[in-house]
Each structure stands twice: as structure tokens, then as C-alpha cells.
């Protein structure tokens, strides 16, 4: 760290510029917006442009009246729709994360144990889909799972089933979509921590009498925990607020909070309630996001 | 030992099949003559022809490209400064908040980012009259904001693996801090900046949710148009769009791999390690 | 497999006596029979056979890539041989996986599990063999005492020094009372001072436990001080097997001689081979000498005569003792080290000869100076014939 260096005036100016520009940008376009969301979540919806009451009533000069209301939050508590959305989101995100882990761990382990020239190729194959459109990859599953989709056609022609299965617009399709689009985020940190693992630890455990399965549970798994945690958070957090996947692959009743928020905002045009939904979602996410940040900083040092 | 390798190998095969079969199916069906997108009706380019006539998709694609180029460029500039701030500027007041603001957009659900930015733009308009209308400009600002965090992370990790003594040597030789950054640091992190730009470009091109929130009437990006189409089910023209995008990405990746391979070979031939 | 239970009694009594490899009535404890290991086209271990006896501290010495580590890993079961067999205490273990072998290993990097405390690390082997908790506890305590780590048992590896980590690794490998302890470069990661101290501790420990140790090392000094016997390895084969003094004093060829420190070379021609001796004529001076040698070499063959630097005498006057072989040279360089001086002398044949002379008397001026003409002489019995 160069904190101790004494710069001249010009050096200080450059330093200030480097720090201030991104700082100011993020303050204005990242942090302030959250404050506004928070503020509006206490407003009342009105039919106007913009469709909510101001926080302070500027017109009435003195004394300034605080127009905050907890109605939106109370409504969230009362209406079952929101409860169900939050809980379902958490459940779907959690199960998807677990599925990602189940498929991603052996894949990451296999890549980490492959010979070096293979390793980079396989790793590239994991990252590659990420560069193609996310939306189109989700759409691909509509083609796959539809009533006359590829999977149904294949099963019908083989004779496994008599009529098409309802696969699209189900929760299973949502799980599939989430696992499909987010699995690179699981594999990459897992690979990073598995690749770092010293083969000698594995050999030492085996030498001391541990069978391959025991070596895995005693040594490999605990030592790859940072990768497991990072990967799980990288899947869980965005999956929790996912909007596209439940909208395209989920049924009408498959409510996830991202979709509920979107509908509240665009369909019902209730901005204050949408803000309250977002605020609560953010509070749910604070813990995992802080965990993730701590992990990131741990990696840096 | 043997059984485990077989298990790992079969999981890998299954995993990659899972990752690639849907994409390949999409490509295959884009050449399908039948309008019933999931029944094979013979090979044809008709959906590509239809695409050329589809003004809505073409305009949206053009708008998306414009937004992606501008936002990726700005995000690279700001993200590089942010990376430098994280790794070369030492301690300063508010550093913790800053690192938080860099890490959070990486995992923030898009609905929240989108909603918050829209509310910001609405409030700003109320207070200052700017932005007078939402559209390409507001989408661009939104994209810069979330993709600069990605650039910052890439640049920062490159800086972290780079020997700071190079810059110290340059400063020791009389380089002004700005000149040192320009002459020493930037050339060394140029590859990271390039991958940051590409990532920002892709993210912008790909974004649906944030664009939907921050866009105004009339400005529809490609993902917004695609979303409105596929919401109703399989759309053959979208298969064609997907194939074109996949083709461009594949081409880019092959090019990058070839460049990397060449560079590696040159390095391998030149030095001893 | 519960290996350790039947070992309670056996080895502590088998104190080290004499040289079992010379005693035909002794049967070997470890038998390595025509062992091969190939990795693709590369042969790492090339048809090696070796007997190691109970209680030995056997060193396998060689440069990097000579196959010594592969050999050790095959003993541990971490690498499967391409051909050949390994027997330990009369049992064929070739097909046994590492976790079923009565062998434990101390790894070069120590491979101490970073997420377990010292105590957990040491107890790991016993836990895996389902030893009763009470016994584990007492044996861990015993081990901690043995390697002097008491009070550190709750530490994590990242709170330990290199020397302490080494002891954890050692204790962990010893706690199962293996029939054979394998040590891969046990001292390489320690600094010089610690290395010397640990070397003696290892020897004492081995003496105390009577366990058979097989050490792999690239450091000839380490091998010399530790081992009962040394096998010098190169390109997957053993070049020479013998006690430290045998390989030092009677190296079979230049490779072995050079591996164990400096050796000076004089060119010579064989005149005749007699039982136990070879008569040669030194190239430059024409002096004829007889040198101890086991084999037969054709008359007229060119050989090298090797003499260790400390076996050479340097003098301005010609030595009179006729047991000495004498040749001449010019001092090119000298270095004063306090307890001794090193002279670099150019011989008549043009080779650089290194002489290490003890400075037994305190002399203000050095006896020899640059460009002095000097006599180099040595007792014929301290030279050795090296084949090219």
C-alpha cells in the first residue's frame, strides 16, 4: 500500500481524480437510488406522475409535515401473496443452489483433476455459454420442454410416454432454468479452490488409513468450503431475485418475488408497494451479500 | 481410484451435454422450414430472411449495439479508475463503502437495481428537469453503473497480481504519478481492460430487466423485443437471432483462443520459463 | 486393517546390531523385487531390486528426477508399479491400497492438514483405524511428548514454525506404529541450523523406536549422517548400495564419487589386474601404483584415479615417505577458511586439483603462495579407481 508516500500537489490531484470519479458515480447511481427506494417505500400511491406522495409536503410551509406511512409494509404482512412469493423464492433459490452444487462440484473436481492442457479447455467450455445471451439460453428451454418440444418429441418417439408431459410452466422447469444459467458461477469458484488443493494432503490422508471416500469427506470437502460458500452465494443471491426464468419457464402460479415486484411495478403501477417489496428483499439479502463480501476480501488478502 | 474417475468423467460428460444440447437444438431449429418451431420440416434459411425484413428486431439490435458500445467504453474507463482506487491508492476515507459499492452490483438482483435506478431518474427529473425523457441515455447510465463493477474486479485482480515495484521504479526515476499510470500501469493492465470491455459489452447486450425499468416509451432494446416475443412461446425468428449471436460469440472465442495460443507459443519459444 | 495392534511388542526390542546385510541368516524386512514404473514413454524406476533389513535407516540418494520419490511412493502404495513386487515383513503388499499398508509416510511438504489442530492431525491415523478414543488420547499424548510438542496440541498449522510442522508430520506418521516409516526429503524445508539439530533427533528417535526408516533425499550430507546404508540412484537405477563410508571411500564410478563431495581426478592407464588390486601408471608422472579394487579391468584401459581433497598433502618439498604417490603442480588459487585452507593446483595433466589442508598450526604467513611449484602426494590406499 502506498498510503505513506508523500506526493506533490500534482500527484495529489491525480490521486483525488482517480478516487473521486468512480466514487461519485457509484454514490449517485448506486447508493442514492437505494435511499430513494427506501424513502418511496414509505409513501402512498396516488394516481399522478410520479405515482406516489412526496416524503415531505413542500407546499405546506410550516411546520414541515412528515408524510411517511408504514401502510406498504403492513400490507406486505397482511397479503398472503407477498409472503408466499418471498418464501417460494427462498425455497426455489435454495433448492436450485443445492442442485447446482450437486452437479457443479463433481464437474469442478473433474476439471481440477484433469491434465493441464485439458483443464483450460474444459474451463473455457464452462465459461463459454456465459458469453452467449442469458435470455436466449432460458428461451432454449422453452424449445426443449414445450408441449411439442424436443424432449417430449423424443420421449414420444421412443415410446416411453403416450402423450406429451407438462414440463414447461412448472417449478421443475424453473429449477432447471436456474441450474442451467447459473452453474458456471458455481463451477468457477469451486474449481479455483479445488485446484489450489495440495495433492499431498490427499496422499497423506490415504497413507494414514483413509479410504477414498473418507479422504473426500475429511480433507477435500472441508478444504474446498470457501469455494462451496462463494459458489453457493453467487447462485443463491441472484436466483432469489430472478425475474426472467420464472416468467418464461414457470407457471402462472409459480410466484417468485422478482416477478411479483415487476408486476407490482409495471402492471399495478404501485410504486411505493414495489419499493417496499424491494426493501424487504434487500434486507433478506443483506446477510448473504455481506458473507459474499467477506469471502471476497478474504480472497484478496 | 478407478471408480471415482469414472464417476467424475461421466458427470463431466453429463454436465457438458446439459450445457450444450439446448444451445445446439436452438441452432438446429433456426434452419427449420416448419413454422411449428419444434417439428422438423426440412432445411431452410427462411427465418433469416424473415429477420432481415423485421424492422422491429433490426432497430432494437441497432439500439442495443449502440448502448453496449457506449456503456462498455464508459464502464471500462470508470471501472479501471475504480480498480486503481482499490489496489494502488492506499487507504482513504470511505474505502469500506467504496469496496461495498463495487462488490454489491455483482450480486444485486436486477429487479432491485432496475427499480432503484428508475426511481432515481424520476426523482432527478422532478428536481432538476434532467433527464427530460427516459430511453437510450438512461439505459446507458444504468448499464455503465452495473458493468463498471465487473471491470473494476477484473482490473483489480490483474493489479493485485502485478508487481508494484515497476511503478515504484518509474516514480523513482522521476515519473509523475499520472505519467506513471499512463506509461507503466495502463499498458500492463491493457489485457484486463480489454476483457473488462468485452464483459461489459456482453452484459449490456444481454440485459433485459434493468433496461425494462430504465427505458422510456419507444426505446426497446433487443432483449426487450425478444422477451416480448418468447413470452408467447417458441418464435422461429428468435432461433435465428440466437444462432447469429452464438456464431459471433463462437467466432470471437476461437479468435481469442488462437491469439492466446500464438502468444503462448511465442513466449515459450523466447524465454526459458 | 488393524496393523498396529500386533506391533506393540516387536520392534522396540530389535535394537540395531551390526550389519544384517552381511549376515546370510538374516532375512530382509522389505523386499523390492524387479520393480518397474513407467509413465507413458518415461521410465521412472527401472528394474530395481533391494533388500532392507529390520531396524535399518536406509537412504535413497539421487538428484531430482532420478526416480527416488516414485520408488518411495510405490512403497507407500500411492503409485502402482508397472511390474515387480514389494514384500514387507514377508507379506506381498504390491496390490494393497495405501490405507491398508503397514507403512506411513512423512511428506516433503509435510502435508499437515491445515484445517485440523495439531492434536487432530496426529490422531487422524488412529481415528481412521477405529482405535478406542481413550487409547487415541493416551497415544497422542505420548507422541506429543516424544516430538516435544506438548502445549501446542490445540494450535492450527498456520500458527506453527517450519520445525514444529515437521514434528507434527513426524508424529502423525509414527503414531500408527508402522512397520516402515517413509520419509521424503525430511529436512529439506528446514534452515541449516535446524536441519543439523533435527537430523540428530531423527536418529535418536529411530534408535528409540527401532522402526525401519526409508529416507529419500538429494542431500548427500543428510544421507551420510543419517543412514545405515545408502543407495545412490540415477535414471531409475541404483548405481551403488553401501554404508556411508563405503560409498564415500570406495565410490564405484565418477558419478557416485562426485555426488559425495569433491573428488580430484588423475588420469592413469591400467597395467594389470590382480585379485583385489589393480596396478596403474599415472599419466603425467609415469608413477606406478597399486590400488584396492574389486573387479578386473583390461590392461591398457584408461581409468581415472580419484583422490578426495582432504586426502591430499601439499608441500614445497618432495615428501620422502615411499608409501606416498607424488605428483607436481602449480598453485593457481588459494582460500583461507580459518580452520583450513583450500588450494587449487593445476596438475601436470592440466586438471585443476583441489587440496583441503588443515591449518593445525597458527602461522602468520601461509606456507604456499600463488604460482608456487608444489608437490601433491597421497597415501596410495586413499585413492580409488573410477571407471569412465
Walk me through the structure:
The complex is a heterotrimer of chains A (301), B (273) and C (388). By secondary structure, chain A is an all-alpha fold. Chain A contains 13 helices and no strands. The two termini of chain A are 12 Å apart. Chain B has a domain at 56-236: MetI-like (MetI-like fold). Chain B is mostly helical. Chain B is built from eleven helices and no strands. In chain C, helix 3 runs parallel beside helix 5 (162-174). In chain C, the strands form four sheets. Chain C has a six-stranded mixed β-sheet with strand order 6-7-8-3-9-10, with helices on both faces. In chain C, strands 13-12-11-14-20 form a five-stranded antiparallel β-sheet, with no helix packed on it.
Short structural description:
The complex is a heterotrimer of chains A (301), B (273) and C (388). Chain A is an all-alpha fold and 301 residues long. Chain A has 13 helices and no strands.
Radius of gyration of chain B: 23 Å
Look at the structure and give the CATH class of chain A.
Mainly Alpha
What class do helices, strands and sheet pairing of chain A give?
A: mainly alpha
CATH architecture term of chain A: Orthogonal Bundle
- Principal-axis shape of chain A equals globular
How many strands, what sense, and barrel or not for the largest sheet of chain B? none
CATH topology description of chain A: MetI-like fold
Percent of residues in helices of chain A comes to over 70%
**Span between N and C termini of chain B?**
33 Å
Query: Could you spell the SSE succession of chain B in H and E letters?
Result: HHHHHHHHHHH
Q: List the secondary-structure elements of chain A in sequence, H or E.
A: HHHHHHHHHHHHH
The total of helices of chain B stands at 11
CATH class of the domain at 56-236 in chain B: Mainly Alpha
Shape estimate of chain B: globular
Question: Which descriptors apply to this entry?
Answer:
heterotrimer, A: 301 residues, mainly alpha, MetI-like fold, globular, B: 273 residues, 11 helices
Write the layout of secondary structure elements.
The complex is a heterotrimer of chains A (301), B (273) and C (388).
Chain A: H1 9-40, H2 71-78, H3 80-113, H4 116-131, H5 134-145, H6 150-158, H7 171-196, H8 199-207, H9 212-223, H10 225-240, H11 244-249, H12 257-266, H13 271-300
Chain B: H1 2-30, H2 46-53, H3 55-88, H4 95-107, H5 110-128, H6 136-160, H7 165-172, H8 177-206, H9 209-214, H10 222-230, H11 236-270
Chain C: H1 10-13, E1 30-39, E2 42-52, E3 57-61, H2 68-76, E4 83-88, E5 91-92, E6 103-106, H3 118-128, H4 133-146, H5 162-174, E7 180-184, H6 192-209, E8 212-217, H7 220-226, E9 229-234, E10 237-242, H8 244-249, H9 254-259, E11 264-274, E12 277-282, E13 288-292, E14 302-307, E15 313-315, E16 324-336, E17 340-347, E18 352-358, E19 373-379, E20 383-386
Parallel strand pairs in C: 3-8, 3-9, 6-7, 7-8
Antiparallel strand pairs in C: 1-2, 1-4, 4-5, 9-10, 11-12, 11-14, 12-13, 14-20, 15-19, 16-17, 16-19, 17-18
Helix pairs in contact in C: 3-4, 3-5, 4-5
